[in-house]
Design a protein that fits this description.
- The two termini are 16 Å apart.
- A six-stranded antiparallel beta sheet has the order 1-6-2-3-4-5.
- Strand 3 and strand 4 form a beta hairpin.
- By secondary structure, the protein is of the alpha+beta class.
- The chain contains two helices and six strands, in the order ββαβββαβ.
- The chain has a single domain, classed as Ferrous iron transport protein A (FeoA) (SH3 type barrels).
Amino acid sequence: MLKSLDLFVPGEAGIIKAVSGEGKIRRRLFDMGVTPGAAVTLRKTAPLGDPIEVTIRGYELTLRKAEAAYITMEVRGNA
C-alpha cells in the first residue's frame, strides 16, 4: 500500500518509493538522505502534530508535515 509519509502514525515503517516536489525542497530532502529505497520509521509526532521525527539511514531526522507530504512510501508495517 502506498501513502505519503505525513499520513504515517508513530511506529509505522516503510520504504521510500518516490520523492516529489521541485527545486529547493526536493534537493533539500535528497541532501538529508531522503532517497528512493531508504527505509523510514516514524518515531514520534510533536504534540500539535507538526513536526514529525523519523529514523532514516541510522539517524533521527525531523521533518515538517509539509515536507513529509512530498515523500511517497510503501508501508511495511510497524517497527
